Amino acid sequence: MAKTLTIQLSDDLESKLTAQAQKLNLSLEDLILQLLSQSDKQENISEFDPISPLLGTLKFDNFNVAENHDKYLQQTLQQYLKIG
Predict the structure, then answer these.
(1) pLDDT digits over 13-58, tens only?
(2) Rounded distance, CA 57 to CA 17, Å?
(3) What is the Cα–Cα distance from 81 to 79, expressed in whole angstroms?
(4) 53 and 46 in contact (C-beta within 8 Å)?
(5) For residues 42 and 9, what is the distance between their CA atoms, to the nearest angstrom?
(6) Under 8 Å CB-to-CB from 14, ≥6 apart: which residues?
(7) Were 14 and a residue from 3, 4, 9, 56 both cysteine, which residue would form a disulfide, CB within 3.0 to 4.6 Å?
(8) What confidence score (pLDDT) does residue 16 get?
(9) Which pLDDT score, from 0 to 100, does residue 57 have?
(10) Spatial contact of 55 and 45, defined as CB atoms under 8 Å apart
(11) What is the pLDDT of residues 64-80, one digit of tens each?
């Protein structure tokens, strides 16, 4: 079931999106729908492994994070926060 959504775009954003839509020979609506669809797909990818955004932000000695990365992260955080 399709839903109708009304949004307000700033003049600047509307100009940029319209120019991009024209380059792709799309309507503004179709471009925005494509962009939202791509955004949804990217979000689903990041949901696949929620630890990904944290990689490289903590320092720990175990480099084998492919397996049990949650365990290693928990140990590191406990040491860092001096808990448990």
Answers:
(1) 999 999 999 999 999 999 898 888 887 666 555 456 667 667 777 6
(2) 35
(3) 6
(4) yes
(5) 23
(6) 28
(7) 9
(8) 92
(9) 75
(10) no
(11) 656 777 777 788 888 87
Quickly state the pLDDT bin for 61 (edges 50, 70, 90): low
Q: Tokens representing 13?
A: 């954003």
What is the crossing angle of helices 28-48 and 11-23, to 10°? 90
Contact yes or no for 55/63 (Cβ under 8 A): no
Contact 49, 39 (CB under 8 A): no
Q: How many other β-carbons are positioned within 10 Å of the β-carbon of residue 73?
A: 16
**pTM for this prediction:** 0.47
Q: How far apart are CA 47 and CA 79, in angstroms?
A: 27
